[in-house]
Structures are given as structure tokens and as C-alpha cells.
Amino acid sequence: MTVEPAAYSDEVLSVRGLGTRYAFQGASVPAVRDFSLSVREGEIVGLVGESGSGKSTVLKSILGMLKPPAEVTSDGIFLDGRDLREVSAKEMRRIRGGRLAMVFQDPINSFNPAWTIGNQFRRVLSLHCPHLHRRDYDAEILRLLNRVGIDGRGKLNSYPFEFSQGQLQRIMIAVACASPDLRVLLADEPTTSLDVTIEAQVLELLRDLREERGLAMVLVTHDLSVVAEMCDKVVVMYAGRVVEVAEVHDLFERPQHPYTRQLLKAIPDFPHDGRRLYAMRGAVPRLDEEVPGCTFAPRCDAHLGDVCDEVPPVLREIGPDGRRSACHKANHATSLEETDDGVR
Amino acid sequence: MLRLAVSRLLSAVPVLILISIVSFTLLRLAPGDPALLSAGLEASPEVLERVRQSMRLDEPVWVQYWAWLSDLLRGDLGNSYSDKSPVTEVIAERLPATLQLSAAALLLIVAVGVPMGILSALRANRMADQVIRVASLAGVSVPNFIVALLLVLLFGWWFPGLMPYEGFVPITEDFAASIQHIVLPAIALAAPQVGLVARMTRSSMLEVLGQDYISAARAMGVRESVIVCRDALRNALLPVVTVLGVQIGYLLGGSVVVETVFSIPGIGRLLVDSFAIRDYPVTIGVMMFIAIVFVLVNIVVDVLYGVINPRIRAGYEAGRS
Amino acid sequence: MALKTSRRNRAAASSGADSGAGTPARPAAEAGLLRRLAGKRISLLSLIGVVGFLLLALVGPLLAPYDPAALGKTSLAPPSAEHWMGTDEVGRDLFSRFLYGSRVSILVGCLAVAAALVLGALLGMVAGYRSGSTADGAIMRLMDVVLAFPLLVLVPVVTGVIGSRDISIGPLEVGAEVQVALAIGVALVPTFARIARASVLAEVREDYVLAVRSFGGRRRDILFRNIMPNILAPLVVQTAFALAMAITVEAAVSFLGLGIQPPGASWGTMLADARTSIPLGAWWLAVFPSAAIALFILACNLLGDQLRDELDPRTKSTGSSRRTERAESGSSNDG
Q: What are phi and psi of C182, to 5 degrees?
């Protein structure tokens, strides 16, 4: 594939050719292959795919949190133009939580049950707000908590279990945004474990933070409605590979990869029109099995024949604004439109 | 905290009562006529009758139990058949040796087992881990009296004079000699439990290290050593603490064998010796003593567990206000 | 079970990618194959060990070259071609004593565990099914009491107190071995009872029990036909550990002279004999029974570990199972 130069001056995070392999049952299994991503200031990029498609692994690889026997290779992970591969371990620790922070899926388990919220918050401040005096910590914590809609007065000595899930996720976001230098927020399914109403509030909070501080975000999710609501750009992953990259409206209007189309079809319409729901057949392939052709071929509705089973498709540019797709059919955009109508 | 302690104590009451019933039943089931054994074989029938009355052996069983229990609550376990001295005194006399031995063993368990487990978890599946796992499995599989016997064989026959392998010196008398004498018995007593604690610590530590909040701490740039000490250890050691409480019971039980092999005059040895001469009040007194200590230690451990576990502590404090 | 396993495997495959979170998860996954391979070898070895000892108990005495009680001319002879394990202080052939003693020790262990399993499972199931009732409270408090007495204290006292009377069940004379076995069995009941109770408590909440109940199933049928098959796995696992425990206790008690009585041979009494000869340097008296005890316990513990991994993934100690479960639940709400 062609390595895209740092085309945009406001590009904050750029990942090129990332590959991650896990050691699984003695063998080295590729979890992510040839992953590339570019996020601009104030942009929210969605990372979509089924469980096991490697979304979370991408985030952890970017943060440098994977250690041997896991292997992370890449042609470069750039944060504000600086290659994180060349950064020392100590420096990387300062970047984690400083300029690059992550919010996890399960807020309850993201806090250490043995320490109070205030205690855990203060620890982060001491790491990432060196300008702050120790006695000002609590005021700063209250300010940050206030920003995420939590009145922290009198609650700093409470333990994590004394808060609700939604509250904890807000606190987690406050912790992640504690550093004044924060540039990119990585969010790993931040609302999956929350109620629908709470989910909406948390998403709104994330959107507001983006506006206020010009944060760039990578939002991992398997929920396409979250994508539609939040993201500017979407990267669709399947079995460890990027299969489609698109602006968000483009993705929903004109999905190019059959996997994306099938994903969209699986969303029930509302109000329900009484037709049977579409269910994708088959399951995500095992990562340790080498597939000669397209990994999605066995489940594909638009299967072309031998070429799909034997030749791995390449992620190639198919339109403006970085629009890309990894499908043999994507080259013939016109014929694709036709079959698309036929299927619907 | 007080609330927790009180509630645990209250829930232990039925267990303590049952322990006393079991002990009393065993005492009465034991062969031989207590009066005869108490008065001596050459006692005349009249004397025997008087002794019988004084021991209330002519009254219904439940009256006997009640009398026995009220004596017990006053700290009176009856008298030894052999030398007529109060059982409580006999136990008190032998207790220091057992306490010293158990304390030394517990120290070994904590000082060796816990670090072994932590190291094993941090080096999971590497060389150090494999070695420690094999060693702890071996430790768990070799009963302490076999360890004791082999130690005696080792230091009594193959390398005589290196280490004293017999007897006991109170720590108040001669510190150095006391430590020397306690080393081998403590090793024998501790060996299986060290393996157990190492295994527990390892799995508990691995479990905690896999938690999201560890990843979250890493993602916030917290130093790895801080993560291990502050985040992982504190949570990982919670279950280990409970196990250590149970260990104290096993140590008292194990002391029965270890004290016998190393000729240490503790309550374990007392149990065996008194049984050999059919001095049932002493035997059952010791047995009951150990059971009560076990129950009480477990209460203390539960309360301590509450102290270090904020969730339980908060629960009780909330209930109190 | 087959269904469960296959689902686990699939989840494990995907968890390699998505839930491979911090350091510990990956080494665990990496060890997966190693451990499964080694695990298979270890399970095989431990199984061979346990079965081998059971066979030894059955046929061992037939192979004995001498009468185990016959006094020989040479006392304290080291191992030789004539006496494979040497002789003891009164010249008895240790190898023959070992073969006979193994039978006693192992049979006592098995009988104790069988008694404990039956009694403990029954009590625990009743307590679990009627949890919160008076019966439950009474049973579990009783178990607490038994647990409060350390095994090595309870067993000799019970054996001694009961054993010094002649007991017979009907026409059956109860020998000393059986008395020791029953005393050990009683001491082992609580662990089985606790496990059975906890398992039943978990199963009662399952939908299938609710379904059977809604069809008007009888309580006894629900407990023994529907629930029991589902709680066997943890009990079987515990059986292996209990066997190790029973062997230890028998040996210890007999070693103290409070269990099997001389001149009868068991691993424990052989060690008791060895103790007096150790100052004379007769290592062979101690080494052979010690090795047998240690090997048997090791085999039981290993087998227990393997069984637990295979049968009862819920209690797996590495924490990797929780991980796969999470991955499993994660995949179900995808799409």
C-alpha cells in the first residue's frame, strides 16, 4: 500500500502500517495487520468491527502497553509529528496519560477498589500536572469533576464502589483529561456497559470536550448508532485488517465494502417494517488460520468467485477524502452500485 | 469495626457450644471409669463412691454437661488423671513451646511463601516461575512429619553437629540457642504451607494483574513498580490473609507431629503423650483448646480482613450510622 | 459439557485478539498450548501414578517375597538383592512390609474418602437445596465444628476414643483399619459438604431447575436427578485432593502410634519404626515409605489440578477463565 505523507498540518495522531502479533498457545498469531490511521485536531475517528477484529489491540499498541511476547511493528506511530517508536520508556510513560490518554470499557473495573477516588486522582495529577502544588490538588480535582458534571465535594474519600457506573465513567473521563497537555483521547467502547440514557450523556460529554479543548479522539465501538452520532470519520476493521475507511455520512450512504454493507443491513429499521432481520452468517475467522484470499470471503454476499478465495484484496483509494476499501469489487464502483440495489 | 467483631463473635457462639458438646461427648465416651482413674486403682469402694459424687458422675448426663460447661467457663478443664494437676495448668505450661514454634513457622510462611508467589507471578511462565511452581508443588505434597523425619536423618546422622535436631530452649532463657533449636522444627512445620501460600499468592497476583484497573493505571503512565506495589499487592494479598488465618489452625495441628519428632514439650506432644497413657481430660482439653483457638483466630482474621478491605469496612460503617 | 467446552475454545480463539489486555493475560494464553501439551502429559502421568498405587494396593501383597511379620536373622540390613528395601530392627523384610503396608494405607485412604464423599455430598446437597432453613444452619454449623478441630487432632482422638471399644455393625466386626478410615472420613466430610452446598446453591438459580419445578417436579427428583449430575464435577475434583489428605492423615496418625497399631504395617507405622532407627543411620527405613507417601500425594494433587482445569473451569485458579467468559459475553452482543 502507499504510505500517505503527513498531508495535513493539523494531523495529531498518525499510525502507519501497524501490525500486532500475540503469542497464543505457543504460536504467534497476528491480531492486527497493516493498520493505518490518521486523526486531525478536533476530529473523532470511529473504529468499528466485531469482537476479535483487533480494535482494542490497536489502541493498546498505540499506547505502547503491549509487552513481549506480544510483538508490535509499524512504519511509524506519530503524535504531533513525533515518532513514538523512538521515544524512551520513561518518556512514553509521561506521554501516556499526558498527551495521549485512554478511557476503558468497564468503569467499575477501571478503578482500583482498594483506594479512594481522590487518592487515585491525586496520583494522576502528581504524574501529569507537575506545575500544580500538592495543596491545590483537591481544588483541581473538584474542578475537573465539575467539568464532567459531578459534584465531587465530600466524595473524594469515597471508594469506587460507592459510585454508579455512569458516574465512574465520567470520573474516568475526568481522570483521562486531567493533563492540560492532552491531545488525543482513545476511548475503548466507553459506553458499552452503560444504560442507554447514561450512554447519551457520556457521549455528549465526550463531544463537548472535543469542542472545548480541540481534542482528537479515537472511538472504538461496535455500535453503529454511536458512530453515526459521534464520528467524523470511520475505520471499519475485520479480522485484524482495515476493510474500509470513509467519512461518516459516506459510510452510511454509500458503503463500499460488503462487510460494511452487511453490518448496516443488520441494524433493525425503526419502526420495524415486519421483515425478517438480517443476520450475517458465519463467524469471525480464527486469527491463527492463514486464509489465502479475502478473510471475509466465506461470509460475503457479493462474492465474486475464485479471485476472492485466492487473492488477498488490497486496501486502495477509491474516492476523495481518503475514501478507501479493501475489496476486489471496489474497483468497479458502477457495477457495485448495481448489485447494491439488487441486494436491498 | 466493632460491629463486625461483635457480629462475628455472636455467630461463633453456636460453633463454640457445639465444640464443647463434642468434646464432652468424647470425654464421656472414652473407655474407663473416670472415678476409678481419678481416685487410683487401689482406692476403696467408699472412696470411689465419694469421688464419683464429687465428680457428679451419678447425675444425669445433661447435668454433668452443665456442670462441666460452667467449670469450663470459669477456666477449669478438670484435673489430669495422671498427676491430678489442673488441665489448664498443664496446657499453660506447655503452651510457650508451641507458640514459639508456630510463630517461627508463620514467620517462615509469610517471609518465604508470599515473596515466592509474587516473584512467580511477575515472572509468569519464565524460568523463575517454573522453578518456584515445582518447588511449591513438592512442598505441598510432602507432609510435614516426613520433612521432619528427613531433617532429623539429615542433621542427626549424615551431618551431625551442624544443627540441633532435638529439644527446645525457651526464648527467654537463651536467645541464640532457642533460635537454633527452633529452626528445623519450624522448617518442617512450615514447608507444606509455604508451598500453599506461594501458590495462592501467585494465582491471586496473576488475577489482579489481569484486571482493567491495572491496564488503566498503565494507560495513565503510572510506573510499573508503583503499579505492582500500590495497586496489585494490596488487592492480591487480601485472599492470602484469609488463608494465613486458616494456616494457624493447621500449624497447631501439625505441631502434634513435629513436636513429637523433635521432642519439643508443646501442647501437640502433650496431646499424644496424654493419649498414650489414656489421660483423657488432658487429651480432650488440648483438643478443645486448639479448636477454640482456631475459631477465635478466624474471627480475628475476618475482622482484620474487614479493616483492610474498604468495601466490607464501608458496609459496616454504613450499617452502623 | 461438550457444548460448553467447544464454546470456550472458540471464545479463547477470539480472546487472543481482543482481550489480550495487560501482561498477565498473554503469558497465560501463550502457556495455553504448552500447558495443554505438558498438561496432557502431566494428567497422564498423574493418572498412571494414582492407578499404579491402587493396583499396588490390590496385588502388592501377592508379590511379597517374605511374610511381613516374620522375624529374620539379620536386623537393620541395608537394601540388597535379598532384601530390596533392607530389613528393620527385628529383621523383618521391609519390601514385604511395604507391599502389605501400601494396601492398608491406600485402602484406608479410599474408604475414608468414599465415606466422606457420600456423607458430605448428601449433607451439602440437602443444606444447599434448603438453604436458609434450620436444617441448613444446623448442618453447616456442625461442619464448622468439625473443621475447627485440626485433622491431626480430631482423627487420633476419635479413633482412640471410639477404637478402644469393640464395635460391630451387625455381624461385621469393625477392624482397626476401618475405624481409622471412618474417623478420617468424618474429618473430611465438611469440605465435601461445603462444595456440594455451594454448587447446589448456584444450580438452584439456573433456569432448568425453575423449568422442572414449574412442571411440578418432585423435590427429591429435582435434587437427585436434575441437580446432582451438574454438581458432580467439583466433587470429583475434590475427591482427588481428599485422597491426598486422607493418606497424609493416616500416615501421621499411625506414625504417632494412634492409628494402625503395630505389628500391622502401614506407611505410617513403618515411619514410626523408622523414627527409632534413624539415630542408627538406617535411612532405608524412612526413605521408602516417605517416597511412597510423597509420590502418592503428588500424583493425587496433580490429578486434582488437571481434573479441575478440565471439568470445572469456574474455579480455575489462573483467572484466565474469567477472561474468556468476558470475551464470550462480549461477542454475543456484537453484530
A: -70, -40
Residue C6 reports pLDDT greater than 70:
no
Per-residue pLDDT reduced to its tens digit, A187-209: 888 888 778 888 888 888 888 88
Q: Which of A14-23, A76-85, A335-344 has the lowest mean pLDDT?
A: A335-344
Tell me which residue in C144, C152, C317 faces B253 most closely, judged by beta carbons. Answer: C152
Q: How many domains does chain B have?
A: 1
Report B:223-252 residues touching C (Cβ under 8 A). 249-250, 252
Contact by Cβ (8 Å): B247, B197: yes
Distance to chain A for C195, nearest Cα, Å: 28
Residues of chain A with C-beta less than 8 angstroms from the C-beta of B314? 159, 161-162
Q: State the average pLDDT over residues B113-119.
A: 89
Distance (Å) from the C-alpha of residue A52 to the closest C-alpha of chain C?
Answer: 5
Interface confidence (ipTM) of the complex: 0.79
pLDDT digits (tens, 9 = 90+) for C250-274: 888 888 877 777 777 888 888 888 8
Q: Looking at the complex, does the CB of residue C320 fall below 8 Å from at least one CB of chain A?
A: no
User: CB-CB: which of C248, C256, C290 is closest to B260?
Assistant: C256
pTM higher than 0.90: no
CATH of the domain at B100: 1.10.3720.10
DSSP A191-219: TTTS-HHHHHHHHHHHHHHHHHH--EEEE
Neighbours of chain A (3+ CB pairs under 8 A): B, C
- Number of Cβ atoms within 10 Å of the Cβ of B66: 13
Distance in angstroms (rounded) separating the CA atoms of residues A87 and A163: 37
Domain C56-311 has CATH 1.10.3720.10: yes
